[in-house]
């Protein structure tokens, strides 16, 4: 049996994915995530997990240091990586949307958009034929309209709670986001049997 | 922005001696096999017109390096070798000699958008068999590529084979028009299963055929393909027979276990109109090379002939191949004014016997110890004087 290296984001997505794998009948050690280790093994299944930053998972997979990975669609949209998107795991559901202060119009000439997803935002406004100035931020995006840095923000919305607490409202939905199972194109071919088997088992779990 | 002195243009690399040596070895092994199989090596210009090769090459426009010549015409650094060779083959000189077998080892240029580290210039090694539309030609080039991978020692090498035309016909049978079929193939190229499932909901595919449609991406053998073949359609029937025959030929050539027949496999290179294939191996996260049949490309040069070929990427082959560790013996002779004549004679004598010898004037070396450590054998001035 080939060893499979799996890149996973730490935290909530890992827990949900862990449940899915165990549900699919994979024999994983009980406590995988609660150490500070970056690489953990599941010897019974010949799995090796690489625990990574969510944004980096597709990078590991694209370069083939991880055969497969679990990544949010938001990251896949933002960084156009050369990976195979095999299965929608349906976990960590949320969506990307535009938001801003209530009852405001965007600046007519060049509205400013603050976001952690410059590529997604730029593509969205270009496809609508609007010229905008994109301002890239790394966190607390909601701050931008409050302090007059931007007219709108483009960000992940899961419950809408953060927006509401900061007095912002959602304007347009851009894309639905869930976590996806991705694979390196070469690993997919060299370990096709194992990967397809994993996809089939997970699919059963997801569709349940 | 100012450019630092050590900087090179985006995606350009220096090949240090070790890599240069590995490449030279790889080139020797590869081109020897190519020539032994009856292919003649050729070279084409580094610069081509944008209007001809640039447009025909199927490499996306923003990946082309463009520049202007002194007359204001747009030029490109050649982005692939297949189109220039197609042009050469279609020239008057070679037209009469069909079928012709041409091979190459050349650098090609493709501008990189992401991560400056990705190479924008890399070597490709491959062959084109032009003027033969039989399956034997396809089997020949696939087997030759396989032989090269084996000779170089690529581990768990794998070949994936698909058929663009057959896939087109099958998609049409599912009721898709050209535009829908194009979208599906784009997703197939990226093996975007999620995208295919989502798109399938919007396509006019009958409910009872949906499962069958989604299974397209899972076929691995020619027998698997049979369920989608419409026996009443003559072209499909014949293409399917071809694939069966190709499978037999490749099995006979000893490639049986290494091949995946994936009906959904498609290439982003649009000039491949029939058979397409791609090579993979352990050690590299990226495909090692690809190829296929490109009869349509020859038509652009005014020739109605069949053509097939492959190209392997040398930079990725290097990742896949473990270089021979055995250190080559390398002798250093250090000399000074007194021992100069001796040293020269000695070097000549050793070189004549096939050894690799570096002659160095000792006082010019600032740090003698680290320098001599680079060699397997050191002959010093005093050794020379003592005979």
From TrEMBL, chain A:
What this protein is called in its record is ATP phosphoribosyltransferase
Q: State its Enzyme Commission number(s).
A: 2.4.2.17
Which locations, inside or outside the cell, does it occupy?
Cytoplasm
Subunit comment: Heteromultimer composed of HisG and HisZ subunits.
Record's keyword annotation contains Phosphoprotein: no
Catalyses: 1-(5-phospho-beta-D-ribosyl)-ATP + diphosphate = 5-phospho-alpha-D-ribose 1-diphosphate + ATP
Give a Pfam family name: HisG
Q: Which family does it belong to?
A: Belongs to the ATP phosphoribosyltransferase family. Short subfamily.
Q: Name one GO biological process term.
A: L-histidine biosynthetic process
SUPFAM superfamilies referenced in this protein's UniProt entry, alphabetically: Periplasmic binding protein-like II (SSF53850)
Identify the HAMAP family for this entry: HisG_Short
GO cellular component terms attached to this protein's record = cytoplasm
Natural source organism: Planococcus citreus
Domain ATP phosphoribosyltransferase catalytic: from-to ranges: 53-203
- Any notes on this protein's domains? Lacks the C-terminal regulatory region which is replaced by HisZ.
Pathway terms, separated by semicolons: Amino-acid biosynthesis; L-histidine biosynthesis; L-histidine from 5-phospho-alpha-D-ribose 1-diphosphate: step 1/9
In terms of InterPro entries, this protein maps to: ATP_PRibTrfase_cat, ATP_PRibTrfase_CS, ATP_PRibTrfase_HisG, ATP_PRibTrfase_HisG_short
Function, as annotated: Catalyzes the condensation of ATP and 5-phosphoribose 1-diphosphate to form N'-(5'-phosphoribosyl)-ATP (PR-ATP). Has a crucial role in the pathway because the rate of histidine biosynthesis seems to be controlled primarily by regulation of HisG enzymatic activity.
Under the GO molecular function aspect, what terms does this record hold? ATP binding; ATP phosphoribosyltransferase activity
Under the heading CDD domains, the entry gives: PBP2_HisGs
NCBIfam families linked: hisG (TIGR00070)
Q: What is its main location?
A: cytoplasm
Q: Which domain of life, per UniProt?
A: Bacteria
